[in-house]
Amino acid sequence: MAYIRFKKVKSEQYLYLVKSIWDSKKKTSKQEIIKYLGKASLVVKEDIPVEFRNDAKILSVLASYNPQDIQKREDATKKSRQQLFKKLTDGNIEECIKIYREYVQIFNISDFFDKILRPVMSKIGSDWQTGKLAIATEHVASNVAQTLVKIIMEQVSGSGNKKKILLCVPVGEEHHIGCDVLETYLTIKGFKVFNMGTSIPGDAILEFIDMKKPDIVLISITINDNIAAGQRLAKKIREQSKIPILVGGYALQTGDVPKFEGHIIKDIRLDEIPKILRNSVLVT
After folding, report:
1. CA-CA distance, 198 to 50, in Å (whole number)?
2. Among 141, 211, 238, 243, which lies 20 to 30 A Cα-Cα from 167?
């Protein structure tokens, strides 16, 4: 059984989705965290994992934390997604920037990436795959999205006093917006980021790792056809080094999870990634 638990830190409440599991050795039940949801005043229905999203008890507890604000935030988020989808597919970078600036005045940058840009880009990708969008429109939208992320990147800075992170893609992967988004967000959080988001041979990536010695490697895979290449890249890195490897991207968010020489990131929010990076010893 899953339910919401809260923890109060100073004057703020933070929510966790937890479940009870039976400890056969101690003959008692204990709580296991399914997902950290965030500050109670900012949590919305979409923050709940899909399999628990329509649980009446969970939604009732969630609604108890200022239900009017929750509905307003959900309405604003839905409207922003619809607007961004239209402006990206129209190729209108000025309006995309405007949507971003208006949204972060109310919410924050990680919410924009998690709740607006990521689902919009997923819809653009799926609409292209099903023939609802022409390939030219998909390319225009992707290019405008990458420009938007670069503009956001220019407006933020981090202290750069944390771990060194290498972002890369396997050979054949032409989509690097995931790497660009991560570069922006992790830089804000103070990580030193090497964004190798363009498709280059695996040997060149190994040489870079040997030269720069990053603390963690993140491999981003967007297209399903590139999963095998990603597996080969992770295996090459593992054969050369014991460096922790994280693998994520749109291609790994649905369907069966393939085996990798590393830890797969799936169904998590952007603001959870720094916590994983800080505990990378657990995923070597």
Report:
1. 32
2. 141
**In a structure prediction context, what are the per-residue pLDDT tens digits for the chain, which is 284 residues long?**
787 888 888 777 888 888 878 777 766 777 788 888 888 877 878 788 888 888 877 877 777 765 556 677 778 888 999 999 999 999 999 999 999 998 887 777 878 888 899 889 889 988 988 899 998 998 899 889 989 988 887 776 555 557 899 999 998 888 778 888 888 888 878 888 898 877 888 899 999 999 989 999 999 998 888 999 999 999 999 998 889 999 988 888 777 778 888 888 887 778 788 888 877 544 44
Read off φ and ψ for residue 197, nearest 5 degrees: -80, 0
180, exposed or middle or buried, with CB in 10 Å at 0-12, 13-18, 19+? buried
Domains and CATH numbers, the chain: 2-65 (no CATH), 68-154 (1.10.1240.10), 164-283 (3.40.50.280)
What is the rounded distance in angstroms from the CA atom of residue 150 to the CA atom of residue 241?
31
Q: Which two tokens stand for residue 246?
A: 């994280």
